[in-house]
């Protein structure tokens, strides 16, 4: 025979009842947490911007030829390597048109061409036939700074041209001079080319 202890049954029933009540009481908090996680999983962000039109354009979009007067070989030989001579220099200009006055924060000007690593300021002679000169090239200068040659494949200092980029048509003025590129110099034809290009910031 065995007997059932009613007190034990009451304790067990009471414990089960408390556990059940605790479980039901946690449900609202669990549901709220799940709802918060779902709400934080996505967000919509709107982006806005504007494409700016070019500030200035180069009106002369074709090739030009600048012919320098002949120079005596001895004058080039007397130069040091990388040095130019103002003798027989030639001035030229690039015509530009600007919608508004440009600043150095809007635009930059670069010069592209062929040069030797030892003399990056000298445009190399591209003529290579029997009648070509050797050891001679050209250097470019801005009108604003006629003592400092412009580096080839580099950015032109803004101070050399930015004051010319006013609203409307204007000109950027440059100077080209004969320059000594190598220690040995021979007489003949000298031909070089450079590309002037605006880059917009």
TrEMBL record:
The keyword Mitochondrion does not apply. Keywords: Fimbrium, Signal. InterPro entries: Adhesion_dom_fimbrial, Adhesion_dom_fimbrial_sf, Adhesion_dom_sf, Bact_Fimbrial_Adh_Pro. It is found in: Fimbrium. Residues 45-201 form the Fimbrial-type adhesion domain. Residues 1-35 form the signal peptide. Its main location: other. Belongs to the fimbrial protein family. This is Fimbrial-type adhesion domain-containing protein. It comes from Rahnella variigena.
């Amino acid at each position: 025979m065995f007997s059932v202890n009613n007190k034990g049954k009451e304790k067990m029933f009471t414990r089960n009842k408390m556990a059940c009540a605790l479980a039901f009481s946690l449900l609202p908090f669990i549901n709220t947490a799940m709802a918060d996680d779902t709400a934080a999983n996505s967000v919509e962000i709107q982006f806005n911007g504007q494409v700016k039109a070019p500030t200035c354009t180069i009106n002369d979009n074709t090739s030009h030829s600048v012919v320098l007067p002949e120079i005596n070989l001895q004058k080039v030989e007397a130069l040091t390597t990388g040095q130019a001579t103002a003798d027989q220099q030639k001035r030229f200009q690039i015509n530009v048109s600007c919608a508004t006055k440009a600043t150095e924060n809007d635009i930059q000007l670069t010069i592209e061409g062929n040069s030797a690593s030892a003399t990056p300021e000298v445009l190399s002679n591209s003529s290579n036939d029997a009648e070509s000169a050797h050891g001679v090239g050209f250097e470019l200068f801005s009108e604003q700074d006629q003592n400092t040659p412009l580096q080839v494949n580099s950015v032109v200092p803004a101070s050399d041209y930015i004051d010319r980029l006013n609203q409307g048509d204007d000109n950027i003025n440059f100077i080209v001079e004969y320059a000594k590129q190598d220690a040995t110099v021979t007489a003949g034809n000298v031909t070089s080319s450079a590309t002037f290009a605006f880059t917009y910031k």
